[in-house]
Design a protein that fits this description.
It contains twelve helices and no strands. With 304 residues, it is mainly alpha-helical. It has two domains: 155 residues, no CATH class; 103 residues, Receptor-associated Protein (Up-down Bundle). The protein is flat and about 80 Å long.
């Protein structure tokens, strides 16, 4: 109980010290904070909370800002998060994702504190071990949300690669039937569902707002960051700009993606085959050898 009391006292003291350091009348507003109300596209809710005139709003914004900066230092810069959110095709902003990481870190901290309290009641762990459990819980929460974002991006890329051959075939059929590239893309956007058709709809929206089709397609390749899709976009752009037969290019690109999918399936099958050998070599084979040698060893012991 003494270790638990020391942990609680240290936590309360640290929290009180952070509150005293972050009170509004002890800090001067930074340049970013002074310019935030006049800039468009900023976090409006945080700006309104900061200028609400209440001490609670100031403390909440200060705590959130510092927590987000700390989370950014732990899990990498905002550029990586912005790129992955763009690849995910979500409307989630970097600030919102950092807020989710802060919430996940708080949940992990609570879980670590609960585990430390349970272990401290009967085992008599040191204060350093208990604080280490709390820190580990916080890190697991923050980094776990970051890894979840990576997993979501990988899953979306896999879905796009799965949808890509069928979309390319539909585009080739539409172009072969006499439609132009823009009309073929519009047909795919209207008749197909999935992540790749959603990206095509976004590309068409960009093209209809005044941008050229080539620029909108290049933006599609930059957003997804998939090499096969980037080659596909380059083929369409070259065919549109130089007047080469687009249907043949689309069919060739679809065949390339099918070959890539087949190679990845073969590689995955090879890795799974090697993984299936692990229990055979380290579990089944030793038990088989033991059953084969044990009768002989027992007979030798009896004769001796």
């Amino acid at each position: 109980m003494s270790a638990l009391g020391a942990l609680v006292g240290a936590s309360v003291g640290l929290g009180a010290w952070l509150v005293l350091l972050g009170v509004p009348w002890r800090r001067r507003p930074t340049l970013d904070q002074r310019l935030a109300p006049y800039l468009r596209g900023g976090p409006l809710a945080i700006v309104e909370l900061r200028h609400s005139g209440t001490a609670f709003g100031e403390l909440a914004v200060l705590a959130l800002d510092r927590a987000q900066r700390g989370v950014a230092r732990i899990s990498g810069g905002n550029a990586s998060v912005e790129r992955r959110l763009q690849q995910l095709g979500t409307s989630l902003s970097v600030e919102q994702f950092r807020a989710q990481q802060v919430l996940a870190g708080a949940v992990g901290t609570g879980a670590g504190a609960g585990a430390a309290a349970l272990l401290a009641t009967g085992n008599g762990l040191s204060v350093v071990s208990l604080v280490g459990l709390v820190v580990i819980g916080m890190l697991l929460g923050v980094l776990g949300r970051d890894q979840a974002l990576d997993w979501q991006v990988r899953r979306r890329k896999q879905r796009i690669l799965t949808e890509f051959p069928a979309v390319a075939e539909i585009l080739a059929l539409a172009v072969g039937a006499g439609e132009g590239p823009l009309g073929a893309l519009d047909r795919v956007a209207r008749t197909c569902n999935g992540d790749l058709p959603a990206e095509i709809r976004r590309t068409l929206a960009d093209a209809r707002t005044g941008r050229s089709l080539s620029e909108a397609l290049n933006d599609l390749a930059d957003r997804t960051s998939i090499p096969s899709l980037a080659r596909f976009v380059d083929g369409i752009v070259v065919a549109v700009e130089r007047g080469t037969p687009l249907a043949d290019v689309l069919r060739a690109q679809a065949q390339d993606v099918r070959e890539l999918t087949r190679r990845r399936l073969m590689e995955s099958g090879g890795r799974r085959e090697i993984g299936a050998m692990v229990p055979v070599v380290f579990l089944i084979l030793p038990v088989t050898v033991l059953f084969a040698l044990y009768p002989g060893l027992a007979v030798l012991e009896l004769t001796v």
